[in-house]
Amino acid sequence: MKTLTLTLDSASYPIMIDAGLMKGVAALLKKENLGGRYVIISDSTVAKLYGTDLEQSMKKEGLDVSLLSFPAGEEHKHLKTYTALQEQLFELGCDRSTTIIALGGGVVGDVAGFVAATYMRGIPVVQIPTTLLAMVDASIGGKTGVDLETGKNIVGVFHQPRMVLIDPEVLGSLEADEIKNGLAECVKHGCIADVTLLDFIESKMDAFFAGNASVLAELIVRNCSIKVDVVMQDEKESGIRKMLNYGHTFGHALEVSRGYATISHGAAIALGMVVAARLSVSVGRLSKLECDRQIALLERIGFKITLADDSVEDIIKLMKKDKKMIDGALKFVLLERLGKVDLDVAVTDADIAAVMRGMA
Ligand code: GLY
Description:
Layout: E1 2-7, E2 12-17, H1 25-32, E3 37-43, H2 44-60, E4 65-70, H3 79-91, E5 98-104, H4 106-118, E6 125-129, H5 132-138, E7 143-148, E8 151-158, E9 163-166, H6 176-193, H7 195-209, H8 213-233, H9 248-258, H10 265-282, H11 288-301, H12 312-321, E10 331-337, E11 340-346, H13 349-358
Parallel strand pairs: 2-9, 3-4, 3-5, 5-6, 6-9
Antiparallel strand pairs: 1-2, 7-8, 10-11
Helix pairs in contact: 1-2, 3-4, 5-6, 5-8, 6-7, 6-8, 6-10, 6-11, 7-8, 9-10, 9-12, 10-11, 10-13
The protein binds glycine.
């Protein structure tokens, strides 16, 4: 078992990473004694794979637990799902002694975390991520919320979990596409903070897709360590945490313009990172060689790097509505070199248009 600790002024919590951990979650929760009652929130896919088993094992430990689920997919990360879950919690008679268990990928973690953050003005949440993307990124750092049709993650709050429990063995049940999505966030961490992580990803690619649990565990630990380090310095994203948005300003706009059900978050931020890297070259920061290395790695993971069907005007308009706009200017996280970022670089519409047209 590898345990990392994320310490903030407001909270301190463990991130436990261990192959086979899922089987011991019920006993661990009993020992932690977080409250009188538990509600597992999951999606329709994960509830079947792991939710019912977890509910049963918690009951065997004598814990009071219910399981709620909502349809899988980013298109369900919206206020209607959030409201329905709040109403179900109230109908179950949940009060402030209830703890939410968020069991699933990034969508489940964000929605269940937001429900926990706001139900009766806030109840505890334990994050149990079941996708690589959620394990290396979304479950850590307390971002919770839902999308609007017109904007990604627009409604939400920070609500730090009490614990994050990660079982790399769970990844064996994932489709290759889910590994791809998670690897996009891992490439992000390498590009912004640790070039040796890129070496590791390049050298272990086959093992990730083969579901090698020990190599995946090492990947998860390395990525979680980067994320923990950044969040501990800047919980509410007023400074250095912005680096984690590398590729996301463009990626979020692409998710909205193409439709949440049409493009995965991983594919969107892979394209967003290519745009950001090319912008970094065009404004005289990153070398072309390093930019090409990032693109080759994303292509090797399996992402199709083309914007042939995307409207430059629409994407720029959407990015300008993004919450990361400051004083009307589009600010990007760019790369100085692989492993080192420049925050808040002002970029013109013409720069973006030129890069997008070069990817058509
Ligand atoms: N996923 C980016 C962040 O947590 O800040």
